[in-house]
Model the fold of this input.
Amino acid sequence: MLVYGSGMSGGLLPQRFFDDDARVVAPALLGQELWRGEVGLRITETEAYWWPDDSASHCRRGETPRNAPMWGPPGYAYVYLCYGIHHLLNIVTGPAGQGAAVLIRSCEPIAGLEVIRERRRGLDGPVLLTGPGKVGAALDLDTGWSGHALFEAGGLELRRGAPPPAMRVGTRVGVRYADERDRLALARFAAAGTRWVSEARELRPDR
Done:
């Protein structure tokens, strides 16, 4: 059951949409749509990783072969392998030369549900897509998608959708290695009124 919007996608988001601070782009991505072939997902939860001075960011120690796509330009995918198992999708933000991105944490299916269920071993309901590794699996992503332009037609696309009626915020998940300031930062954003969100009990209404 869809929580908001009609499931009718709009056009591609322009590259300029992503050319801002990750903490601005992350909430703006809620309700936007990820498409790959017949699979369409509405974004319901994001996490921001900004530049500079974010000790939770992959770019905190500078550029490496792994995080190179995260340094821009904006609007490209950064996909990395987590724990040797899960492929996590991030959207690069801000100007080139600044290592920043938004992690896509959860989504809601709007098209291709049977394909998604097949890729997720027959599961159903929110467990399909409430977690970044689950999103990567549903889209059948791997690290070869890093550097892919999400604002261009073909392959993996980010299309304009409908924003949620309200938003919830919370701290990021799995960043215990970061400084206290960054561990406690309200850098996770989620659509309100939907079950398609991970770690929902740790979220609170946006003020």
